[in-house]
Design brief:
One of its GO terms (molecular function) is lipid binding. Strands 1, 2, 3, 4, 5, 6, 7, 8, 9 and 10 form a ten-stranded mixed sheet that branches. The longest helix is centred in the first third of the chain and has 16 residues. The chain is built from four helices and ten strands.
């Protein structure tokens, strides 16, 4: 368990620190980058938010709030609280046209910064739980690596950076967004900022 949570946080840190990100979109408070390596596409969304970093961390670290701003979450429930920094959630996502709804069993690992220059971290990855086997009504999907890094800019503002590694399985969802427009990603980011502020 300790190794899984460590690797969850480490994977997110390494993903965000990769070189070769290409910026695809800039709005007033939102920047979107993509990174391609073989058949793995990664996505990074940076949001400027007018609240302190510790507050953004407490709001983003509780995934049961996620349905309030992310339309990709229909339901989200805590399956196990391993300790105050590690929880396992069960998430149901809406179906694509002609497909079953997707579901995820995810580990969310939280880390507070040791130094003022370091970010708060909310790392996410799929895990397997024998008590939650895949169901025939849903398509069990996997999150390889995703999460938030929250950097304090001042007492009243912070930068929230969301990174996600995308496999070929979720490509159809993203392909629609990335061809010609990343509107859906931007809309979700705007909803996130509105929720936080």
């Amino acid at each position: 368990q300790a190794y899984v949570s460590y690797s969850n946080v480490a994977a997110l840190t390494q993903l965000a620190a990769k070189s070769g990100w290409e910026i695809t979109s800039t709005l007033d408070h939102i920047k979107i980058w993509t990174h391609e390596e073989g058949d793995v596409l990664s996505l990074k969304v940076e949001m400027q938010v007018k609240i302190p970093s510790h507050l953004a961390f407490s709001l983003l670290s509780d995934f049961t709030f996620r349905q309030q701003w992310d339309k990709h979450f229909i339901t989200c429930e805590v399956l196990q609280a391993l300790n105050e920094d590690e929880k396992i959630y069960y998430v149901i996502s809406p179906p694509m046209t002609g497909h079953k709804p997707r579901d995820f069993v995810i580990l969310v690992s939280l880390r507070q910064p040791c130094q003022p220059s370091e970010p708060y971290i909310v790392a996410v990855k799929s895990v397997t739980l024998t008590s939650m086997p895949p169901s025939p009504e849903r398509c069990r999907s996997e999150i390889l690596c995703a999460g938030f890094q929250i950097y304090g800019d001042s007492n009243r503002s912070c930068t929230v950076c969301y990174s996600k590694q995308v496999t070929s399985g979720v490509m159809p969802y993203l392909a629609a967004n990335l061809t010609g427009s990343s509107r859906s990603i931007e809309d979700t980011a705007l909803e996130c900022i509105k929720f936080l502020e």
